[in-house]
């Protein structure tokens, strides 16, 4: 039934009456809308409700994947999946989660990353029956082992075997098999087996590295030919003993800045390595009798020898002069980092008789003088196979024109002549040398004592003698006047013989060369790639520097032509 509105006393219709409870609730709601409610009881901490509403994400054609060291933009090539209504409860998700170990998780993560990279490059791989027969993902499992070994050979030739091969062996099984080939371990250079900041005489890291070396030597060094140990303070005899047992093909041994090198370790290495013919002991602490004993045991097999000056130098030179090593082809003796002013005598003729096949002779920064000399002394057999002679020094020198002629009077194949610091030599003495094909000539004075009368003229005797063969010429600090230098450098501007000069490097630092002379040299030598004009007093400011490359040298020529 419809409610009939009641009438008031004055005859007006009244609205229908509501019960008291409903009217009170509506009044409270209206009050809540008008003003905030005031709590009546004690204050309580209200919990902040999480908003269940989320902004709908715009549908894009890609998503961003975060890899280890990059962000990958991966296109969405597949249809988007239907949106789930609600997530499962936490305990249900834990029960439904599959149990996977750490290795499976890493493998699936790696495979997913590779797949994302392929997608980012636009290379979606289509599955085919042929691909399904191949086991394992990635190109590394399909490359032939021989090709991988050839690739590793090129890397080892440029970067060395260690630590590259040790790290590459941990990539996969195929790379481990490739790095196990003994062909890759023919030349090895090993750093010291301990960290630089380890405490104690024998740390844990040192024990672990030494145990690795004990496994590495017998399992990888079967074809080792060249071994280099650098900055080893301990365990050098132990390492040499292990190498002697497992490396019968060893031909070269280098101990650079090593300590505790004993006589027994070197001599025992000769018994087990009969092909050892090269020894480098520069800057190493060796027992006083180690080198002498090694030379006596080496006999005719030693061909290359690098040494640092010591108290046994006179005995070593005597052994070489007596024919202890007749097959010796390279001999280098230096003084190390600290200069040594100790003087020793060298019997030139006896050394020529004892080492007739010597090809390289380097006496660096040594103070030596010929044992016998004079005009009445007969010349020795010389060095007929000598190709390089280096007598560079920054201290007192006794090398004169006579001494140089005694060394080179039979060296017709000499190509490199380094006489830096030898202030007693004159252009006339160099001009009478019977060496027609010298390619590198270094006559600079670097910090030498200038108490000897320096030559002031005659530089043309040097340049005109070797103008067709010289590729590098160093005249730093020579006090030839400008007219003499002009006549000397004119040898590289002359085209009367029809042969263009092949000069590639010219150093005139501190000389009196002029603008006209150097402009003519640059214009006549198209192969010139290095030019040093530092501290040249007759050149304008801004041009007194070293030029590297043909572009810089051409710029220098343009500047000189504008001035000239």
Automatic annotation (TrEMBL):
Keywords: Ubl conjugation pathway
Compositional bias ranges of the Basic residues kind: 44-57, 103-112
GO CC, any one term: SCF ubiquitin ligase complex
InterPro entries for this protein: F-box-like_dom_sf, F-box_dom, FBXL6_F-box, Leu-rich_rpt, Leu-rich_rpt_Cys-con_subtyp, LRR_dom_sf
Pfam families with a match to the protein in the record: F-box-like, LRR_6
Region feature Disordered, mapped onto this chain: 1-58, 96-137
Keyword Protease in annotation: no
Stretches assigned to the F-box domain: 142-190
SMART domains (UniProt xref): LRR_CC
Biased composition (Polar residues): 123-135
Protein name: F-box and leucine rich repeat protein 6
Taxonomy of the source species: Eukaryota, Metazoa, Chordata, Craniata, Vertebrata
The gene coding this protein: FBXL6
């Amino acid at each position: 039934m419809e409610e009939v509105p009641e009438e008031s006393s004055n005859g007006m219709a009244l609205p229908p009456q509501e019960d008291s409870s409903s009217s009170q609730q509506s009044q409270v709601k209206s009050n809540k809308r008008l003003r905030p409610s005031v709590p009546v009881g004690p204050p309580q901490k209200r919990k902040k409700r999480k908003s269940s509403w989320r902004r709908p994400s715009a549908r894009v054609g890609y998503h961003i994947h975060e890899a280890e060291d990059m962000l990958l933009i991966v296109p969405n090539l597949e249809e988007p999946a239907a949106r789930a209504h609600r997530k499962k409860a936490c305990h249900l998700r834990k029960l439904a989660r599959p149990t996977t170990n750490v290795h499976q998780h890493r493998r699936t993560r790696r495979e997913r990353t590779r797949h994302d990279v392929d997608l980012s490059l636009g290379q979606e791989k289509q599955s085919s029956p042929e691909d399904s027969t191949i086991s394992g993902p990635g190109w590394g499992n399909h490359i032939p082992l021989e090709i991988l070994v050839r690739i590793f050979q090129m890397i080892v030739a440029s970067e060395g075997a260690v630590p590259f091969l040790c790290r590459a062996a941990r990539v996969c099984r195929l790379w481990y098999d490739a790095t196990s080939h003994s062909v890759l371990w023919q030349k090895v250079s090993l750093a010291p087996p301990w960290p630089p900041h380890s405490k104690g005489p024998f740390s844990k890291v040192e024990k672990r590295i030494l145990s690795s070396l004990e496994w590495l030597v017998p399992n990888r060094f079967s074809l080792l030919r060249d071994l280099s140990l650098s900055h080893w303070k301990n365990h050098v005899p132990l390492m040499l003993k292990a190498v002697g047992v497992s490396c019968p093909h060893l031909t070269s041994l280098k101990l650079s800045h090593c300590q505790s090198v004993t006589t027994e370790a070197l001599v025992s290495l000769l018994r087990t390595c009969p092909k050892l013919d090269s020894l480098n002991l520069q800057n190493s602490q060796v027992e006083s009798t180690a080198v002498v004993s090694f030379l006596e045991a080496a006999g005719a097999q030693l061909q290359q020898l690098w040494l640092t000056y010591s108290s046994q130098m006179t005995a070593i030179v005597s052994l070489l002069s007596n024919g202890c090593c007749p097959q010796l082809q390279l001999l280098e003796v230096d003084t190390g980092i600290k200069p040594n002013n100790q003087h020793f005598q060298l019997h030139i003729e006896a050394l020529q008789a004892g080492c007739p096949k010597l090809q390289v002779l380097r006496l660096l920064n040594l103070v030596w003088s010929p044992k016998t000399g004079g005009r009445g002394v007969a010349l020795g057999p010389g060095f007929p196979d000598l190709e390089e002679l280096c007598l560079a020094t920054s201290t007192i020198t006794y090398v004169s024109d006579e001494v140089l002629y005694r060394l080179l009077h039979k060296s017709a194949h000499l190509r490199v002549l380094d006489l830096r610091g030898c202030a007693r030599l004159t252009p006339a003495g160099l001009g009478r040398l019977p060496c027609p094909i010298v390619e590198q000539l270094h006559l600079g004075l670097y910090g030498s004592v200038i108490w000897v009368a320096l030559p002031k003229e005659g530089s043309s005797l040097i340049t005109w003698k070797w103008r067709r063969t010289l590729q590098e010429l160093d005249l730093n600090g020579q006090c030839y006047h400008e007219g003499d230098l002009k006549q000397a450098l004119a040898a590289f501007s002359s085209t009367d013989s029809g042969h263009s000069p092949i000069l590639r490097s010219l150093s005139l630092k501190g000389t009196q060369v002029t603008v006209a002379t150097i402009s003519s040299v640059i214009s006549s030598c198209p192969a010139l790639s290095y030019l040093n004009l530092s501290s040249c007093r007759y050149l304008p400011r801004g041009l007194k520097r070293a030029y590297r490359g043909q572009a810089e040298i051409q710029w220098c020529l343009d500047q000189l032509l504008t001035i000239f």
